[in-house]
């Protein structure tokens, strides 16, 4: 497998969101042709398959419109969108099966936390090699994306796997009406996790509702934000000197807090869709999740919806992972690779990014789009829900990757530990100790 190297890596990316300010696509039929078949010949329409995670309540309609517009304006390329459930874990699992069967997706969204696994285990084509096939704009990536944004799509060995697309960070959505009801000033939302617990107690005692829901999709992104802000991490060190530290006091403290809040009926424990719906129905006061779900949450909420920055642990600095995805090319057919690149370029065009950002809440990865007075600038400046995500730009770090062929199992070990803690079947100390032992064994 050929790999390309690009800019050097920095785990901290303080300028992440300054300069650039996780549906059914409506095409549920089968692809028009073999997604990894041979060249279709000059002058014939090339059909490619695009896998994405956007359900109807998470930008799915916008994805369909983007695909439809591309297809309407391209005579030689037809894109078939395919929604993959179970988010990024679902994409990686289905991609493995499709690749084994000889029919991989041509281009797919891959969560940032799975890129090291893709790099070491799946036969993709590095995006710099795909971009090099473009004779008209050979420097498209270098000319339109800041190095730190490109590096979000970097694997543990420095390879740039795909092109960064979805950009988000976690914010605290809250029901201002419920805060008023329990005597909390909605103009001064919780700034720390201690205040979140205090408000949650008021909500439980005075309304019988839950104070908080922390997203629980099939990954550990939200939990990683809490851990990083408490001074912890999944691993320490670089390269072969990495040390697994998911059982450190800083990590255990976070998971014990979450478990205690669920046990004491301060926090709601459910799948993402259930938690988001319960918040929208006024049964939960605060929702901690990605700004990338802003549009759907806004549509579901019939109350004074507001956002604030990710809470901190006392005076410890806020440190939150950049969420989202990278566009990765899997087809090995040269004509399909060129077609996939043309579609990727369209996804990154100001026109498509404006529709994508307004329809989801994600932030644009391409430089200059956020500042365009004829594009996103009015939307970003006038939408108060986006303000918290923009304010957090200097606190954003890279989403952690578990490398190696057992990287997915290592990620799953953390998911299993989280569920045991929230289900009340294990203490945080026991669950994280066992998870650490399991991950160390997997990563040997």
TrEMBL record:
Keywords, ordered alphabetically: Signal, Transport
Main location (coarse class): other
Location within or outside the cell: Cell envelope
Stored PROSITE patterns: PROKAR_LIPOPROTEIN
Secretion signal span: 1-19
Transport found in the keyword field: yes
Keyword Protein biosynthesis carried by entry: no
Source species, domain of life: Bacteria
InterPro entries named in the record: Bact_solute-bd_prot1, SBP
Classification via Pfam families: SBP_bac_8
PANTHER family cross-referenced by the UniProt entry: ARABINOSE-BINDING PROTEIN-RELATED, SN-GLYCEROL-3-PHOSPHATE-BINDING PERIPLASMIC PROTEIN UGPB
Protein family per UniProt: Belongs to the bacterial solute-binding protein 1 family.
Full protein name: ABC transporter substrate-binding protein
Organism: Paenibacillus residui
């Amino acid at each position: 497998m050929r790999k390309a190297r690009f800019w050097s890596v920095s785990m901290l990316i303080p300028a992440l969101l300054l300069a650039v300010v996780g549906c059914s696509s409506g095409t549920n039929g089968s692809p028009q042709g073999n997604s990894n078949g041979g060249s279709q010949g000059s002058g014939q329409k090339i059909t490619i398959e695009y896998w994405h995670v956007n359900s109807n309540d998470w930008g799915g309609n916008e994805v369909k419109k983007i695909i439809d517009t591309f297809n309407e304006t391209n005579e030689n390329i037809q894109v078939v969108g395919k929604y993959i459930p179970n988010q990024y874990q679902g994409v990686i699992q289905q991609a493995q099966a499709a690749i084994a069967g000889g029919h991989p997706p041509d281009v797919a969204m891959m969560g940032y936390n799975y890129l090291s696994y893709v790099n070491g285990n799946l036969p993709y084509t590095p995006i710099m090699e795909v971009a090099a096939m473009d004779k008209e704009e050979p420097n498209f990536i270098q000319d339109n994306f800041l190095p730190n944004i490109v590096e979000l799509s970097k694997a543990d060995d420095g390879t740039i796997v795909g092109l960064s697309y979805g950009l988000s960070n976690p914010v605290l959505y809250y029901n201002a009406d419920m805060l008023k009801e329990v005597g909390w000033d909605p103009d001064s939302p919780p700034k720390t996790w201690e205040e979140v617990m205090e408000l949650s107690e008021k909500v439980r005692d005075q309304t019988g509702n839950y104070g908080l829901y922390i997203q629980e999709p099939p990954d550990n992104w939200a939990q990683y934000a809490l851990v990083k802000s408490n001074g912890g991490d999944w691993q320490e060190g670089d390269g072969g000197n990495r040390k697994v530290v998911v059982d450190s006091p800083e990590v255990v403290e976070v998971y014990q807090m979450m478990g205690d809040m669920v046990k004491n009926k301060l926090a709601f424990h459910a799948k993402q869709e259930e938690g988001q719906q319960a918040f929208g129905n006024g049964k939960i006061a605060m929702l901690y999740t990605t700004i990338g779900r802003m549009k759907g949450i806004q549509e579901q909420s019939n109350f004074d919806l507001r956002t604030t920055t990710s809470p901190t642990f006392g005076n410890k600095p806020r440190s939150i992972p950049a969420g989202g995805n990278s566009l990765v090319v899997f087809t090995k057919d040269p004509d399909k690779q060129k077609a996939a690149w043309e579609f990727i370029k369209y996804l990154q065009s100001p026109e498509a990014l404006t529709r994508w950002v307004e329809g989801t809440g994600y932030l644009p990865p391409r430089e200059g789009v956020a500042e365009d007075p004829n594009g996103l600038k009015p939307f970003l400046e006038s939408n108060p829900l986006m303000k918290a995500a923009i304010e957090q730009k200097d606190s954003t770090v890279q989403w952690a990757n578990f490398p190696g062929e057992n990287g997915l199992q290592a990620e799953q070990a953390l998911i299993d530990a989280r569920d045991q803690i929230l289900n009340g079947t294990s203490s945080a100390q026991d669950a994280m100790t066992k998870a650490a032992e399991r991950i160390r064994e997997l990563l040997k």
